[in-house]
Design brief:
The complex is a heterodimer of chains A (132) and B (183). Chain A has 132 residues and is mainly alpha-helical. Helix content of chain A is 56%, strand content 3%. In chain A, a hairpin with a 2-residue loop joins strand 1 and strand 2. Chain B has 183 residues and is α+β, with helices and mostly antiparallel strands. Chain B is 24% helix and 34% strand. Chain B is globular. The chains are: A mainly alpha (132), B alpha+beta (183).
């Protein structure tokens, strides 16, 4: 049986508390990983490792953070992601809420997009796929 | 290694676990000015001892062909001091080992006493970060032999650890064909 939403969230909370040294109550669904929880680039690899272990899933590195889009000249103009780029991001990151980013898609702000909820949505999709 | 913070391996099981020891002497430079009048091993260098024990087990798993760096000290708890005359034993266990990184946990004891506990995260750098090899393969192999890695090291099936061919080739080219290879 796949884990419930709250089981997924609790495991993610544990992973983030251990990886980022934050308190339990800081890990809310709305918290952004970079801005609110202080994650740095190396922490993402650490988080991915912990999630893979906790849920027994495989997380392809470019799936959670599709950096290749942000460095592709086809999708970026003057420091902003183009409409085609945003469409590609949406396709690649169906688990993330990109509505806020879409209104002013500055590449630099992208790193601070991902919330704990997005991460939970992503993990749920992986766990469901593994069980299905 | 100009930066030896372990004296030798005493156990080494490929990709799984390792143990190394280090004795602390009063004459060692790093304790001179750390806390004048109270010589002790800086905790940061105890972390380095763990990092070397753990880093070599991760790096050996990649046949020393990827650069493995300590990316993060996820946890470090110290229960006691290490003083001159003490012999510390670092024991590390590989929790997760993948192509791009590894998680290693460790405990250090002085005698029966638990001295420290750590959780370390290593990143294995891809060629895009590499600025060439950190050590010449011959120098590096010499260091590994000094640490007795190939005397105690075992592969998954219990057979002795193999020296990677590229390091042996470097050794042969430096030592010439007449030297008897050491174990």
């Amino acid at each position: 049986m796949p884990p419930t939403k709250s089981e997924v969230f609790e495991k993610i909370r544990t992973a983030l508390v251990d990886a980022l040294g934050v308190d339990d109550d800081e890990v809310t669904p709305e918290a952004t990983l970079v801005g609110d929880l202080g994650a740095e680039s190396i922490d993402f690899l650490d988080i991915v490792f912990r999630l893979e272990k906790a849920f027994d899933i495989e997380i392809p590195r470019s799936e959670l953070f599709p950096e290749d889009i942000l460095t592709n000249a086809e999708y970026v103009q003057d420091g902003k992601v183009t409409d085609a780029g945003v469409a590609e991001l949406k396709k690649r990151m169906p688990f993330a809420d990109l509505s806020k980013f879409e209104s002013n898609p500055v590449v630099q702000d992208f790193g601070n997009l991902l919330t704990v909820r997005d991460l939970a949505n992503y993990v749920e999709s992986k766990v469901d796929a593994a069980d299905g | 290694m100009r930066w030896f913070w372990i004296d030798r391996f005493i156990e080494f099981e490929r990709g799984k676990r390792a143990a190394a020891v280090k004795g602390l002497a009063l004459g060692e430079e790093q304790i001179d000015r750390y806390m004048p009048g109270f010589p002790l091993m800086p905790h940061s260098l105890i972390v380095e001892g763990f990092a070397q024990t753990g880093g070599i087990i991760v790096s050996e798993y990649h046949h020393f062909q990827r650069q493995v760096v300590l990316a993060k000290v996820a946890k470090a708890v110290f229960h006691d001091l290490m003083l001159p005359g003490d012999l510390i034993t670092y024991r590390v266990k590989v929790e997760s080992l993948q192509t791009d990184g590894a998680v290693v946990t460790g405990q250090a004891h002085i005698g029966e006493r638990l001295q420290a506990e750590v959780e370390l995260f290593f990143a294995a750098l891809g060629p895009e970060f590499s600025r060439g090899e950190l050590f010449e393969p011959f120098d590096f192999l010499t260091m590994m032999r000094l640490l007795r890695l190939y005397e105690v090291g075992r592969q998954e099936d219990g057979s002795p650890l193999d020296v990677p061919e590229h390091m042996l080739a470097a050794e042969r080219s430096v030592m010439g064909p007449f030297e008897t290879p050491r174990p």
